[in-house]
Fold this protein.
Amino acid sequence: MEGTSVRDKVVLAYSGGLDTSVAIKWLQDKYDLDVIAVSIDVGQPQGEDDVIARAKLIGAIEAYSIDAKETFAKDYVFPSIKANANYQDTYPLSTAIARPLMVKLLVDVAKQHGAKFIAHGCTAKGNDQVRFDVSIVSLDPELGIIAPMREWVMTREEEIEYARVNDIPITVKKQSPYSVDENMWGRSCECGILEDPNVEPPEDVYSWTVSPLDAPDEPEYVEVEFVKGEPVAVNGKSMAPVELIEELNDMAGRNGVGRIDHIEDRLVGIKSREVYECPAAVLLLEAHKGLEGLVLMKDLLAFKKGMEQKYSELSYDGLWFSPLMDSIRAFVDESQRYVDGKVRVKLYKGKATVVGRSSDNSLYHEGLVTYAEGDRFEHNSAVGFIYCWGLPLKTAASAYKGKGQ
Ligand code: ARG
């Protein structure tokens, strides 16, 4: 009967897959909790069946599906573009930056329902458990955390058996040889043959990109317009964030752009090998850096690089909601004040190359750089400048001469 339940509640991050389906029942049995299942859409391909109905069938007292695509694009992906976020200069953090958003939504649901716990399906060896747990305590230090897959000792076969015995409806698909995580910012793939870092990833790893070998023989050009560092239009057509990212995933993907083979350093101390497909991310990060090179001053570009690296590490390491991250974000936002303009990118057989850039805020002045007619650089200033620039070295050279050998 409504309202008479005395059980505490747990909000479960529910994907509809085997692990989290089994978890619904397991949380009720093992912890005697009422389960609220929440499935969050950040632009991953959606399964055909109704995961919400299935969660209720398994025994969840409530089940929600939250469409978080727009928030993900606007508040997580776009800030990361402005920060040129790329972990170890290689991985655009697609999985990593979706986790804090998921946690934020789970915490909101927990508040609405007075739930005391959040549960997630991460294992004990990855980064994602850290991102979930640390984001949860950052947003609500009172909440308890349960990670069934860190606790139970079931193999996949035992999970299937557990589901059978407990009448849990699951669709056991043919198991993919890889472990895959997807959202609109990229696709992550690990395990199977990829665990040998010396083996070239086979073609069946990829699903968003064509092989550069099969990509069109003609290059495809795309123009991306940015306002304050955020992409707003593609080939002259204004687009909302989600639409823009999806469009560029298609465009870059069909030209074989976005394949990444990364030996990566996990937060938990393990080196792992992950293969990513991040077509839109690779394209947009190139384009954005291309525009910044035109409009930002040298010292800001150089200083920002350090901030970008820190931003990437904090995102990777599960510290999205930290005060340091807030401060860096404020710096990055301010740095984008003049990052307006258009960038032309050539997509050709696996590569995205910036081939043109223009901006009303361009710091590139032909009159200053040209060796031809119209030169406006003051040549006679060079000698005085070099005198001052070299003066400390000249002073040191004569003071130290013949000493310190
Ligand atoms: N290594 C990446 C990260 O920690 C992706 C992990 C996603 N999981 C997967 N099954 N591929 O952000």
